[in-house]
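Running this now, will post back.
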Amino acid sequence: MEKASHLSVIVDLSPTQWYLSAQATNPYPLPIETFLSHLLAFLNAHIASKHENTLAVFGAFPGKSVMLYSSTETSTLVDDAPPLDANSYPPFKTVDTTMLQQITHELEALGHMEEEPPCALVGALTKALCYINRITHPSTSATSVAEDPAILSEPHILILSVSPDLSSSYIPVMNSIFSAQKLKVTIDVCKIYGPDTVFLQQAAHLTNGSYIYLERRDALLQYLIMSFLSPPSIRKVLAAPTQDKIDFRAACFCHKNIVDIGFVCSVCLSIFCQPVPVCSTCRTKFPLKTLQRLSVARPIPPLANSRNTPPLTSINNGAQRFIPRPANGGMNS
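Update: finished.
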C-alpha cells in the first residue's frame, strides 16, 4: 500500500427498507443500529490502514442525499467538536460522533411522511464522483506538486444498498458509470437487503468492482473487511469476489420499465419497449414499412419467471434485426 487510498461510502438509509430488514421473520434480521456499528468499525479500519487514507460518507435518504462525513471537511459537518478522550483514538472518535449526529439529524428532519419518496441513491453517487474528481484533480494554483495529481489518491466507491431498483434512474446511473470509468474509479456494491439490483450489478461489473449479495447479514463486518477494505491495486494479488451472473437488462425510455426485449434507435441509441414511429429523444422518424415488419416479426415475450436469455433487438439504419444474447448475458452494440 504505497499510495494513499480514498474511500467514498454511499449508505442507503431508507427508513422503510431498514424497518423491513429488522423484522424477526427474516432469516437473519439486521436492524439499523447493528448495521451502523458494523459500518463504523469498517470505516475505522480504513482510516487505520494508512495514515494518508481519506474518507467520505454520503447518505442516501428519501428524496435527498447528504454528505455525512468528510476527512477534509469535518469542521463544516459537526456542530460541536467531540470531547477529547484519552482512551480513544481521535480520528475514530471524530468519525463515530459525526456520523451518528448527521444520521440522527437527517432522520429526525424527515418527520412523518404519508408516502416515502424514492431513495436518492443516484444523487449520492453523483456527489461522491464530484468529490473524488475534486480531491484527485486539484487546481494547479492550489498545488505546486509537479507530479500528476491523479496519482495522489486511489479512489473507490462502496455502495451499501437496501432499496430495490428504480427504473427511472437507469439513465442517471449509466451516466454515473461512464463518469466513474473516465475517472478510473472502482464501484463496489454490497446488497444488504432486498432483491438483486440490476443497475448496481452493471455498475460494479463495468468499473471492475465487486458485487456481493449478503447471505449472512449478521456477518456484515466480515464481508466488508474481507471484500471491500483493500484498495483496487491490492486486489490484483488477491482473490477478490466476482459475479457469477450479471443482469444486463435496461429500462425503456418510454415507460421506464426494465425490459428483456428492446428496440434501439439507430441515431441516439434510445431504448423502447415497442416499435415507435418517432424517437422521443432525437425525433428521428422511421419508415412505416419498417415498423409494420417489426411489429409482425416481434417475438413472443418469455414468461416473467423464466431465467432463459431472450433475444435482443437493434436498429441499423432504419432496419431492425434480432440479435441473440451472448451466453454471458452481455449486450451487443
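Residues 30 and 192 are 9 Å apart (CA to CA). More later if anyone needs it.
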